[in-house]
Amino acid sequence: MITSINDAQRAVRRFRSQLKAPGSPVRHLKRAAHRALHPLKVRERAEAGKRFMAKLSPEMAATVEELRANGMARFDAHLDPKLLAEMDAYYKNVLLPRAATAEAAKTHKFFFQLTTPEDWTADNILVRFACQDSVLAAASAYLKTAPFFQAVKVLESRGVSQTKWEASQLWHLDYADSRAVWLWVYLTDVESMEDGPYTYLPVPASKRVSNSFFPRRIMDEEIDNSPLKAEVRSVMGKRLTAFLVDSTSVYHMGSRIADGHTRCIYSASFLDPVFHHTVIKTAAPLAGDHRLLLDR
Q: Is the Cβ–Cβ distance between 176 and 271 less than 8 Å?
């Protein structure tokens, strides 16, 4: 029952969030309308995606099929070691020192954003790392079009005082208006549940999760008291472990960090664009097919 202006505002925010949820018909209608109204642009992106996929090796093609089947696939073997080392150095020398003064996110008190707009430029290693040939080839193959590069983040999750899990620590699907794929790289060791690993249900199991028309977060008890418990998977690995995930297709949770532990991750998000905006900035227009990464 709405009894105050604050209650009304919360109700509006909740309704708007529901409209963006993966199960909402609005997001599917929006995507269908966009494609119908922009056929030439859809075709241009599809052709560019094929050119990006020219760099797809048989091994990477198998990785994409694993991603499609399970919602997660390891990607370590396909990354440029030099770019990985450069990004690691940037994390240690530039980003990690920011942790001492980083502020918690308003909606996720355990998240600490280490990146700022100065990191979101086309010549920054965080952006160049996401734009390497293997990543663009895999993203194009998965989305079946030239991907839209939405954002890059470096997030530190910390063990904080809390009496219950909340927000992204609960089982959920990510909200997106289109198909999406993320590149994740662990920047710290994630070798136990105390480190808060990315934990998920593979695609077939995720399809069996019972949810409402407007999807909600799923409580542990609903997973633990069902056959789904046996299908839960967690991505463990040493620092610089890399993997691709489609968090719109698999129920997942993470950042359940024990006291005294931290977990830092790099993520780059790629979408099949539907009226999205990117945080990436360029001093000059990108050349050729790469301009489509920013939907220019």
A: yes
Terminal Cα distance for the chain, rounded: 46
Q: Which residues of the chain have pLDDT under 50?
A: 1-2, 22
Separation between Cα atoms, residue 20 and residue 57, nearest integer Å: 35
Residue 173: what are its φ and ψ, rounded to 5°? -105, 150
Contact 99, 114 (CB under 8 A): yes
Phi-psi region of 195 (alpha: psi -120 to 50; beta: other; left: phi over 0): alpha
- Whole-structure pTM value: 0.87
Per residue in 164-217, pLDDT tens?
888 899 999 887 667 899 999 999 999 999 999 999 999 999 999 988 766 788
Chain centre distance of CA 222 = 24
CA 254 to chain centre: 12
- Percent helix, strand, coil in the chain, to 5, is 45, 20, 40
C-alpha closest to that of 130 among 293, 295, 254, 250:
293
Q: What single string gives the DSSP state of each residue in 189-234?
A: -B-STTB---EE--HHHHTT----SS--PBPHHHHHTSGGGGG-EE
Q: pLDDT (tens digit, 9 = 90+) per residue, 44-71? A: 989 999 999 999 999 999 999 999 999 9
In total, the chain counts a number of residues equal to 296
Residues 6+ apart with CB under 8 A from 116: none
Determine the distance from the C-alpha atom of residue 238 to the mean position of all C-alpha atoms in its chain, rounded to a whole number.
Answer: 20
Q: H/E element holding 243?
A: strand 242-245
Q: Which of 107, 267, 129 is nearest to 198 (CA)?
A: 267
Which residues, other chains included, contact 282 with Cβ-Cβ below 8 Å and sequence gap of 6+? Answer: 121, 122, 294
